[in-house]
Fold:
Amino acid sequence: MRLIEPLGLLDGEAAVDAIGQGLALPLAGGRLAFTLARLIDETGARLVPVAAIPDDFAPTRARLTAKPPPWAGLPADRPAVMGILNVTPDSFSDGGRHFDPLAAIAAGQAMAEAGAAIIDVGGESTRPGAEAVAPEEEQRRIVPVIRALAARGILVSADTRNAATMAAALAAGAAIINDVSGLTHDPDALALIARRDCAVVMMHMRGTPATMKSLATYGDVTREVLAELGAHLQAAHAAGIAPGRIALDPGFGFAKEGTQNLDLMRRLALFANFGYPLLIGVSRKRLVGMASGEVAAARRAPGSIAAGLYALGHGALILRVHDVAETVQAVRVWDSLSDSGKMS
Structure:
């Protein structure tokens, strides 16, 4: 697997000028550019200026530099915020808060009004060690919420790994399926998504929420996650899922422990090699707590925003968050400052 790791990242006018002078290449066709490339193949890794990328890396370079197609109706050149709406009693930082359907609907509406482009509705906690929820119970929790939000014109995602729940969510008006297992948990999921006209988020994890902690063993975490996500993508393509419907999520905290998450974040730009929109979910997670020293998940909003902005600066397009209003404000400022235009 040939990879190009973009280094020496630029944004704004510096990116435009460097691209124009042949000193940089665009990252994912957007406002970011890179001036150096670490070439990775079976022989090892070597660092070169972008003008010296050899022809045998040309297909990889083409994917890395091209702008992904618009995904789920969202613009491909502007970051977006996905609001987390857990209709569960046991999610890791907000379990029980939105378990009542009316409370969940009100919260989803408030997130949309605060600027969330997508509301991600989930009825099963996938925190480490969580027990599985029967699809029937999962549907009982989320379908009324999805139906109400979609009826108000809100773009809704269903956070589920069960094909029966995916079908029920789509029938209720969801436009996106967000599967933590990358469509590997349920053997009917690939065929279902292939038949339906919906967008899908394919995330990386190993095992299940109950077992994934024991599977967090890697040599090079980023390259192994890339390889495993690549295998999931091949299965999706073979099933007939069009590339333009797919976004990717590296799965921070899912079968990744401690510094593995930080290592993965630092090399996030490598995921642009696939040529798909990149969704990042680090909100309130342990990697934020570890880096910030904040024990309480509910008090990790500042650290979560910092990590999210770092991700945007390394090629991410969508941030999945709990603290929507605060993140939307931060993203708008980042968007203005990193754009090649001038703030008015």
Notes: The radius of gyration is 19 Å.
